[in-house]
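Retry 2 of 3 after timeout on previous attempt. Resubmitting structure tokens to design endpoint.
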């Protein structure tokens, strides 16, 4: 079916994508505590956080951070998007590389 498109109600605005950063604590140990955080986006009512390395997605996060958990050495990509009743932003990507102890 071609020609179909989403209709956004008048006065409705899809939020912009957030700018995520990865926060790490416990450096120099065998594992680190990893949190992804971002500044709140105007008009957003919730956020989705994706941890592709673990094939996990956390939907409807209402804070501006998400505790991912403990991770060992390796490379980890993360993605965050904002959403509201009008729609969902595109994904914003960030990544983290944890060195061996």
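Retry 2 succeeded. Sequence:
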């Amino acid at each position: 079916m071609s020609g179909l498109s989403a209709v956004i109600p008048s006065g409705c605005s899809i939020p912009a994508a957030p700018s995520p950063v990865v926060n790490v604590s416990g450096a120099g140990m065998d594992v680190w505590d990893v949190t992804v955080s971002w500044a709140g986006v105007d008009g957003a009512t919730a956020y989705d956080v994706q941890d592709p390395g673990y094939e996990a997605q956390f939907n409807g996060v209402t804070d501006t951070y998400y505790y991912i958990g403990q991770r060992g050495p390796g490379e980890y990509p993360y993605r965050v998007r904002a959403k509201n009743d009008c729609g969902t932003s595109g994904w914003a990507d960030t990544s983290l590389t944890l060195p061996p102890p």
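Attempt log closed. The beta strands are 21-25, 32-37, 46-51, 56-61, 65-71, 74-84, 87-88, 92-98.
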